[in-house]
Design brief:
- This protein is mostly helical and 197 residues long.
- It has 10 helices and no strands.
Length: 197
Amino acid sequence: MKKQTNPERSERTRSKIINEAASLFHHKGYTATGLDELLKNAGVTKGAFYHHFKSKKDVALAVINEVVADKVRKRMIEPVINSQKPMTAIRKVVLTLRTETSPPDLLTGCPINNLASELALQDKELQKALSKLMNEWETAWTDALKRERKSHQFKNPHEFCLYLIALIEGAQAMAKTQQSRKPLDVALKQVEKLLSP
């Protein structure tokens, strides 16, 4: 077994902190997660924490920019941006979200939505990071739909993408609130119909 170098060990510690913070913030909330709990769950010392981060807010920015952004890009953006048929790709993303995502994942809410509903009015820097990620998603889908010939079906691709994303995010918030996947199933089925060829 290869021995880890100090930089490798340091990066592993940083990743443990970020991943544990992402899980705690998602399931308990940012405010309800204490630093001591985060350190205990991640199995790191305060010294190790402060070597990588200045504060809990600093970790939250890393969670948004690295963990949440990675999930959104893999799940919602990458399957669409390089597709020859973006509307079909968006429909497939929605179908996958509805049929292949586990109920516990669906009923804990969207990571962007969870953090935004808790933090957007509390901290400008966190709000900007969340807004930047939403804008990336919005822009990616809009640019993809502008390339598609079927785009004449709607006059304004940007507004259409805003509508789709708002519908998806709203349905996820309802599913979390009601602890039922029904709102999400209904909304996503309507999106699938809307995007049918």
